[in-house]
Amino acid sequence: MRGSHVVARVGAVLRAVAAAEPDGASTTDLGKRAGLARPTAHRLLTSLAAEHLVARDSKSGRWSLGPELYLLGVGAAYRYDVTDQAREVVIRLARETGESAFFSARRGDETVCVLAEEGSFPLRSHVLQVGIRFPLGVASAGLAILSHLADRDIDEFFGRVRPEAAWGPGHAETPIRARIERTRLDGYAVNPALIVDGSWGIGAAVFDRSGKPAWALSITGVETRFKPQRRPELGVLLLEHAHQLSGRIQA
């Protein structure tokens, strides 16, 4: 149990460092993000740095991901990486809508943005960026994935995770479940400026070979670009692209 506890803490620290990219973060900030006391966070970060899994800027003292993680990622990409299949779809979404387009992957109870493409419209919401993590149910990508899980899996998720603790009452279980029902009716998920005022998002799930929602396509933009008459049009377009990408991945 002690070894498992250490591994869990290391995982929490690495995820905190990843969430701080590209600017990095201080030991204190990373400790808070990982739910650890500063001395514990510093001890773990120092050990990870010795293995080149994290790196520390000598001037600012901020921590970032280390080069060894890149090499490990290259090895894992052969089995898990589908970004090459998704890139052309994401670029086309941004071109056709004018909005910023994204591809996110499910990792346990979270989504991680792995691809981003800016649209032509000059005003952007800046909610998503590559590497950012959200709990399932938060942001349109995570809501789309959560909505396509079995009811039992959704119940178990809310037994483990309380998104409102970090993201406010709009992300409590009751309002998220209401948005799940709406998503299941429409097929696509809508984030009505719940993370940043004036910033809307629409997401659609992408399915793996077993038919599980493992990824999501999404677009974000300012509220004036997501008026009621345009949302269904954007949602249908997202669903078409998500269906196409699911077919590519499953082939």
UniProtKB/TrEMBL annotation:
All copies of the HTH iclR-type domain together span 4-67
Keywords from the UniProt entry: DNA-binding, Transcription, Transcription regulation
PROSITE patterns, sorted: HTH_ICLR, ICLR_ED
The keyword Transcription appears for this protein = yes
What processes does the entry annotate via GO biological process terms?
A: negative regulation of DNA-templated transcription
| UniProt xrefs under InterPro entries | GAF-like_dom_sf, HTH_MetabolicPath_Reg, Tscrpt_reg_IclR_C, Tscrpt_reg_IclR_N, WH-like_DNA-bd_sf, WH_DNA-bd_sf
Transcription regulation as a keyword of this entry, yes or no, is yes
The name of this protein is: IclR family transcriptional regulator
